[in-house]
Design a protein that fits this description.
Chain B: GO terms for molecular function: oxidoreductase activity, acting on the aldehyde or oxo group of donors, iron-sulfur protein as acceptor; thiamine pyrophosphate binding. Chain B: It holds the Pfam family TPP_enzyme_C. Chain B: InterPro entries: 2-oxoacid:Fd_oxidoreductase, THDP-binding, TPP_enzyme_TPP-bd. The complex is a heterodimer of chains A (about 375) and B (about 280). With about 375 residues, chain A is an alpha/beta fold. Chain A folds into 2 domains: about 180 residues, Thiamin diphosphate (ThDP)-binding fold, Pyr/PP domains (Rossmann fold); about 110 residues, Rossmann fold. In chain A, about 40% of the residues lie in helices and about 20% in strands. Chain A is built from 13 helices and 16 strands. In chain A, the strands form 3 sheets. In chain A, strands 2, 3, 4, 5, 6, 7, 8 and 14 form an 8-stranded mixed β-sheet that branches. Chain A has a 5-stranded mixed β-sheet with strand order 11-13-12-15-16, with helices on both faces. With about 280 residues, chain B is an alpha/beta fold. Chain B has one domain: 3-Layer(aba) Sandwich (Rossmann fold), CATH 3.40.50. Chain B contains 12 helices and 10 strands. In chain B, the strands form 2 sheets. Chain B has an 8-stranded mixed β-sheet, with helices on both faces. Chain B has a two-stranded antiparallel sheet with strand order 5-6. In chain B, helix 5 crosses helix 6 and helix 6 crosses helix 7. Chain B is globular, with a radius of gyration of 19 Å. The chains are: A alpha/beta (about 375), B alpha/beta (about 280). At the A-B interface, helix 3, helix 4 and strand 10 of A face strand 2, helix 4, helix 6 and helix 12 of B.
Chain lengths: ~375, ~280
C-alpha cells in the first residue's frame, strides 16, 4: 500500500483525530454528523479542517438520521462523504444504511463503540455493535465492516474504508472502540502518495446509453455525479437496470444477486488481516480493535513461556475473512476469541469452525478492557 | 394543446411506464404539472434540476420527470436534499413531500431545514391523509375527521403548515391548491427563483382515502370544496367569520441567503485569512 517513505510531519493524535487525517488523505470533502460520545472529536476536528479544504463542507445536522441523509445526498452529488457516531446514533442510522446499500451509494460511517445497550456506558469501550454493523438494517444486503486497533491504523483503515466504498459502491462501516478512539499516539501524518487512493468510476458513454444499475464485468456500475448530464432515477425500492421500481421476480433477483456478487468476487481484496506468528501456531488468538493490542502482548508472553501461540488480527470483520480463519482452525488445537461483548464475532468463528477445534471465548462487558493476563491465562 | 404536448415530451420520461400510479380524482398529477410548467417558465436546464422525494403517493412523482431524481426514505427527503445542495450549490434542488412525510415523520428535518435556510424548495402535497398505506390520519388531518386510525374522529389538532414553517424561520412560505392551478404555478415558480428555504403547501384532494370517509360524494365535490373554502389571503383577512376558510398566496417573503451561500462566504473568508493553507 505504501509508496517510498518521504519526510513526514509527526503528530501526537487521538484515534479519532487520526480518522480525520485518513479521511482527508482519502479525498473526503464532506462531513455531516451529530455529536455523540465517544466519537465527537472526529466531528469537532472536521469542523475546523473542512472549511480549509477546497469545496470542503461540514454540517452539524439535527440528528443521526439527517446526518446520514446529508452524506448520501453529498455522495450522490459526487463527493467522498462520511459521518461518525456511537451506539445510539448508529441505531438511528440503520434505515439510511440500507438505503445506501440498496442505491449503491459510497459512504463511510465510523462507529466508535461504547459499552452496553441503549445509553449504556458512554465513556467506556465496548464491541457490542459487531453483529449490528453486519445485519442492523433490514433485508438482505451486502456490507463491508472494518476495524482498527491503534492510532496509525485509524489513518490506514479510514483510507481503506473510502477506497472500498468508492471501488465497490457500498457503504463501509469502520468500527472503532472508545479505547482506540481516545488513545493518543505519535503518528506520521499522511503525505500525498502514501496511500493508493481510489475514486468511483464515472460513465464514459453518452448519457442516452447510460443504464445506472446495469450489470457490468465487476458488478459495480459506473456512477456519475448528479448534475453532470446523466439524469437518472435513484430509489430505495427494488429497481431495474434503469433505476425504476420493479417487482418482477427476475429483475429483483438480478439486482440483489449482483449487489452480493460485487462484494463476493473481491473477497481477496477486501478481507484484510494481520498474521502474528500464526505459521507454526498451536494456539491462535483471533481479535480486533483494542483487544488485539492486549492479545499481541499475551501471545508474546505465551511464546516466552514456551507455548506456540499466534495472533490473527482482523482488520476486516465483514465479509468475514474465512479464508484466513479457517486454515488456522484446522491447524491449531485451540482458538481463543476475546471480545468486549457477550460473544459476537466468536459466532462467526464457531460457524466457520464446524467442530474442527476448540473455540474458547473471553467476554467482558463491564466497561473495562480485556487485559493481556486475562488472555494469557486462557492460552498458556 | 400543442404546448402541453411539447412540455410532456420535454419533461416527462419516455422510458417510464405510464399511466401514473395516482387514483382517479387525485390532485397529485396537477402538482406535477405545476412543477414542470414552473421549471419550464424559469428556463432551467434539466441537468441542473434535482427532485428529491420522500415516501408515499407524492414520492412517486419523482420517477416520471426527466430531471435528476432521488426517491429517498420516508420523511428524509430534506436531509438528502440538504446534502446535495451543499455539495453542489449550482443545482436547483426541489424536495417533493407529502403531509405525513414532511410534517409527521420528517417534521424535525423540516423545521431545521427552515431554520438553517438551506437553498431548497419544499413542495408539500397536503391531502390530510396517509394515502398510500390506505387512509390513516396524519399530522394535518383536521380535528374530527375520519380515517382508518381515527374511526371515531380525529382527537388531535392539525398542524398549520404555513404557520409552523413561518415560525421556524423559512425565507418563503406559500399555499396554493390544485383547483387554483394558475396561482399554484406562480407560487411554485416564485419559490424556485428565490434564495433560501422556500416552502409551497399544495392542497390536493385524496378522494379515495380521505373524501369517501368524510362525506364527499365524488372527487369533483372535493375540488368544489377547495374552490369554495379557499380564497386569497388579502380577501381572507377582510373576512369577519373565517370559519372553514383557508387563505392562499404568499405568507412570508424574507430575503435570507441560503446556507450554501453563507457557508461559501465563510470558507472564502477563512481561506483568505490563512492564505489558503489546508
Amino acid at each position: 500500500m505504501t509508496a517510498p517513505r518521504k519526510k513526514h510531519r509527526e503528530a501526537f493524535l487521538l484515534g479519532n483525530e487520526a480518522v480525520v487525517e485518513g479521511a482527508l488523505a482519502a479525498g473526503c470533502s464532506f462531513y455531516a454528523g451529530y455529536p455523540i460520545t465517544p466519537s465527537t472529536e472526529i466531528m469537532e476536528c472536521m469542523a475546523k479542517r473542512l472549511p480549509h479544504v477546497p469545496d470542503g463542507v461540514f454540517l452539524q445536522m439535527e440528528d443521526e438520521i439527517a446526518s446520514m441523509g446529508a452524506v448520501i445526498g453529498a455522495s450522490l452529488a459526487g463527493r467522498k462523504a462520511m459521518t461518525a457516531t456511537s451506539g445510539p446514533g448508529f441505531s438511528l442510522m440503520q434505515e439510511q444504511i440500507g438505503y445506501a446499500a440498496m442505491t449503491e451509494t459510497p459512504l463511510v460511517l465510523v462507529n466508535v463503540m461504547r459499552g452496553g445497550a441503549s445509553t449504556g456506558l458512554p465513556t467506556s469501550p465496548g464491541q457490542g455493535d459487531v453483529q449490528q454493523a453486519r445485519w442492523g438494517t433490514h433485508g438482505d444486503h451486502p456490507i463491508i465492516v472494518l476495524s482498527a486497533a491503534d492510532v496509525p491504523e485509524c489513518v490506514e483503515m479510514t483510507v481503506t474504508a473510502f477506497n472500498f466504498a468508492e471501488k465497490y459502491r457500498t457503504p463501509v462501516i469502520l468500527l472503532l472502540d472508545e479505547i482506540t478512539a481516545h488513545t493518543r499516539e505519535k503518528i506520521d501524518l499522511p503525505e500525498p502518495g502514501d496511500f493508493e487512493i481510489f475514486s468511483r468510476l464515472t460513465p464514459t458513454m453518452p448519457p442516452e446509453w447510460y443504464k445506472p444499475f446495469e450489470e457490468t464485468m465487476r458488478g459495480v456500475p459506473p456512477m456519475p455525479p448528479i448534475g453532470s448530464g446523466y439524469r437518472f432515477h435513484v430509489t430505495g425500492l427494488t429497481h431495474d437496470a434503469l433505476g425504476f421500481p420493479t417487482s418482477r421476480p427476475e429483475e429483483v433477483r438480478a439486482l440483489t444477486e449482483r449487489q452480493f456478487r460485487k462484494i463476493d468476487r473481491f473477497f481477496e481484496d477486501i478481507q484484510l488481516v494481520e498474521h502474528v506468528g500464526t505459521a507454526d501456531a498451536e494456539v491462535v488468538v483471533i481479535a480486533y480493535g483494542c483487544v488485539a493490542r492486549s492479545a499481541r502482548l499475551a501471545v508474546r508472553q505465551a511464546r516466552e513461556a514456551g507455548v506456540r501461540a499466534g495472533l490473527l488480527v482482523l482488520k476486516t470483520l465483514y465479509p468475514f475473512p474465512r479464508r484466513h480463519v479457517e486454515p488456522l482452525l484446522r491447524s491449531c488445537r485451540l482458538a481463543v476469541v476475546p471480545e468486549l461483548n457477550m460473544g459476537q464475532l466468536s459466532r462467526e468463528v464457531k460457524r466457520v469452525n464446524e467442530g474442527h477445534t476448540v473455540v474458547r471465548t473471553i467476554n467482558r462487558i463491564d466497561g473495562q478492557i480485556i487485559t493481556p493476563s486475562q488472555i494469557l491465562k486462557e492460552i498458556a | 394543446m400543442a404546448e402541453i404536448t411539447q412540455l410532456i415530451h420535454k419533461y416527462l420520461r419516455h422510458n417510464k411506464k405510464f399511466p401514473l400510479v395516482f387514483c382517479p380524482g387525485c390532485g397529485h398529477g396537477i402538482v406535477l404539472g405545476s412543477l414542470v410548467r414552473s421549471v419550464h417558465a424559469l428556463g432551467l436546464n434539466k441537468d441542473d434540476v434535482v427532485i428529491v422525494a420522500g415516501i408515499g403517493c407524492s414520492g412517486r412523482i419523482a420517477a416520471y420527470v426527466d430531471f435528476n431524481t432521488v426517491h429517498t426514505t420516508h420523511g428524509r427527503a430534506l436531509t438528502v436534499a440538504t446534502g446535495i445542495k451543499m455539495a453542489n450549490p449550482k443545482l436547483t434542488v426541489i424536495a417533493v413531500m407529502g403531509d405525513g412525510d414532511a410534517f409527521s415523520i420528517g417534521g424535525n428535518h423540516l423545521i431545521h431545514a427552515a431554520r438553517r435556510n438551506i437553498g431548497v424548495t419544499a413542495l408539500v402535497l397536503n391531502n390530510f391523509i396517509y394515502g398510500m398505506t390506505g387512509g390513516q390520519c396524519s399530522s394535518t388531518t383536521p380535528e374530527g375527521a375520519y380515517s382508518h386510525t381515527s374511526p371515531m374522529g380525529q382527537l388531535e389538532s392539525a398542524f398549520d403548515i404555513v404557520e409552523l414553517t413561518k415560525a421556524a424561520g423559512a425565507a418563503g412560505v406559500s399555499r396554493g391548491t390544485v383547483y387554483h392551478v394558475k396561482e399554484l404555478d406562480a407560487l411554485v415558480a416564485d419559490a424556485l427563483s428565490r434564495p433560501g428555504f422556500n416552502l409551497v403547501e399544495a392542497l390536493t384532494p385524496c378522494f379515495t382515502q380521505y373524501g369517501r370517509g368524510n362525506g364527499f360524494k365524488s372527487a369533483v365535490e372535493m375540488f368544489r370544496w377547495l374552490k369554495d373554502s379557499c380564497l386569497p389571503i388579502e380577501r381572507f383577512e377582510k373576512l369577519e367569520d373565517r370559519t372553514g376558510k383557508i387563505p392562499l398566496g404568499s405568507f412570508v417573503r424574507r430575503d435570507i441567503p441560503g446556507l450554501e451561500t453563507r457557508y461559501a462566504a465563510m470558507c472564502e473568508g477563512v481561506r483568505r485569512k490563512k492564505g489558503g493553507a489546508a
